[in-house]
DNA sequence: GATGAATGAGTATTCATTCAT
DNA sequence: AATGAATGAATACTCATTCAT
């Protein structure tokens, strides 16, 4: 039941937005009552928190797996970008909620999610720093800023990337990595 | 008075979010009454629309000026990136509202803003296409996707870029352009 | 200008109802401003009062003229019924407002209109009483109740009578008078 | 609780009118809160609809019972008139709301009530037509118009009929039927 | 585990009216 | 004679949350 509520919430939040979706909407969509909702969740914000937590936790796990592989920094970065685009593809609704509805978290909950988000970014930053140190990436780069640049490029795609469209996630990742690695200027 | 309402609204929307800011909050902040608000704006959404319209219109004007300059595509792209970062710097609140609160527009209003957003992106795409044609940018590039990549990188910065921080807008633009033009891979 | 406001108000009150029509609606319809309205009318209720007053005053004048004719009671009653139906025909909007929007008057204004309405009814009652006395109408009739019966029959027609429809005002008056004078039972 | 809200609403609508009665007035009168109101009714209009529906449904049932009696058309017509006057007597407030506040219904709701009202009138029209066919009523009558005449006479009485007054419902019915059947002209 | 009734604080919006100019 | 800015009180309606059963 808890899982059912979560699933339906995600769909509704994606379509109408968090604030615009009432608890009544949620329970109506699964034929339950509000009482039931509050049996499983202490508040509406808690439900949103759960969704965020679930998403970022999985992302961090996948990141950890990728970073601990025995591969070049370049290859790891490519894997990360692809993983993020795949996430947007397979969990479009969750990704959208993760980026769009974070402002509806507050206090400790918000703090916790922001920490995990930052941890993810630091993972990228660390990868870039390593790449610079071992001579894979250019030495003049600002690792911090570069992580923001790459994550911006990738994260923004939740706004326009259509998994059913002209390009697959793998193709977009390929093209993004080409730009990130070699730039757009004619050699 | 209309300008005063708009200014205060922007500050409040930035801090608390559009939905979370009530008309009462707005008029309280300037010592007016709700009646006064509705004398100047037909609805809360109309106020948000005005803010969006103002922001995107100015952006389009600046883009137009840049694109009609007599300069290389590279220089124009740099100018565009810098202009966007400057916008985020000088009009941080408006930029944030522009990216974060668009979902609170609906119907024709939304349509109109989306059109203008797309027009801006098409300006970037066209510039890249031109650069490819005249041999400034690599010929294998997908102009469409590249425009999304660059705009993602830049737009995302409203989420983290702090104009009072370690790096100025010009410096960030410089670093972004370095990545965009040459990539991060060690030559 | 005063007449113009009144005319347009009548049309709007007829279509949307008194409460549902705002002063803004009224002044918009003639391209004036609210200030102008209050230059000519002390309140919205006063405007409604004027409309009522105008309507009932004309009705009373016409009634007076009919009652002072040199004719049989039967003929006078017929003339009265016809006059009322003609009023509904030529001044449909005013008639409708007169019957439907009276509840929006209050205090002295209401009192005054109710007095005039009652004066009109008493005119009918008096006519019936005379008719009974001089032997034109059945002696067992209750003049008071009969006046209510006849006025009900006629006044109610503002709810269904369509001057452009199958029957003209004169024809309806004819048929009503037939029922009123002879009843519907087969002789 | 739903019944309680309905009862109190009827009393308030009767006294102050539908538009002039706020939800706050209603819930204050029974010591409940607005939330409670909206737990039972989806809107203020829905409450009005319920009241209308209840009234007209009962009227139609009673009409059906009367029309299916084994009696003369004359007797049935008398029974109908009496029934309506009794309704106005015992459910004065509902009757008043039914006639006065119908304009506050709109869309499908209005349509439905108007249909039922028309069904009631058609019942009367049919009765008159039958009476004409079997020779109880004068053959030259227009059944349609006659139904409007009789219903006007009776319905209008909600405006003046006082059940505690000089005449009882039965007496008024008697006098109305005398006029309707035999007319007022001296034989 | 689940329900249904109740709450109360909050929200956008409307509008008749006033008044200085 | 007319305007336009401002008001403030009122209104229908929403919704997350509580709690006894």
UniProtKB/TrEMBL annotation, chains A, B, C, D:
List the Gene3D superfamilies hit by this protein, alphabetically. Homeodomain-like, Tetracycline Repressor, domain 2
UniProt DNA-binding region = 22-41
Q: Where does the chain cross the membrane?
A: none
Coiled-coil-forming residues are none
| Keywords associated with the record | DNA-binding, Repressor, Transcription, Transcription regulation
A Pfam family in this protein?
Answer: TetR_N
Q: Which residues form the HTH tetR-type domain?
A: 1-59
Checking InterPro entries in the record gives:
DNA-bd_HTH_TetR-type_CS, Homeodomain-like_sf, HTH-type_TetR-like_transc_reg, HTH_TetR, KstR2_TetR_C, Tet_transcr_reg_TetR-rel_C_sf
* Highest taxon, organism lineage: Bacteria
Name used for this protein in its record: TetR/AcrR family transcriptional regulator
């Amino acid at each position: 039941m808890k899982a059912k509520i979560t699933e339906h919430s995600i769909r509704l939040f994606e379509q109408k937005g968090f604030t615009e979706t009432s608890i009544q909407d949620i329970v109506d969509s699964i034929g339950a009552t509000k009482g039931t909702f509050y049996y499983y969740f202490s508040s509406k914000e808690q439900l949103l928190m759960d969704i965020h937590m679930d998403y970022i936790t999985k992302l961090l796990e996948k990141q950890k797996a990728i970073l601990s592989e025995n591969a070049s920094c370049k290859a790891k970065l490519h894997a990360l970008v692809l993983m993020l685009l795949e996430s947007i593809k397979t969990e479009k609704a969750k990704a959208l909620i993760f980026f769009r509805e974070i402002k509806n978290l507050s206090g400790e909950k918000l703090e916790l999610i922001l920490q995990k988000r930052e941890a993810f970014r630091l993972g990228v930053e660390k990868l870039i720093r390593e790449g610079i140190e071992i001579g894979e990436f250019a030495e003049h780069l600002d690792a911090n800023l570069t992580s923001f640049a790459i994550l911006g490029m990738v994260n923004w795609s939740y706004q326009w990337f259509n998994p059913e469209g002209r390009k697959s996630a793998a193709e977009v990742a390929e093209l993004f990595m080409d730009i990130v690695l070699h730039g757009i200027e004619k050699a």
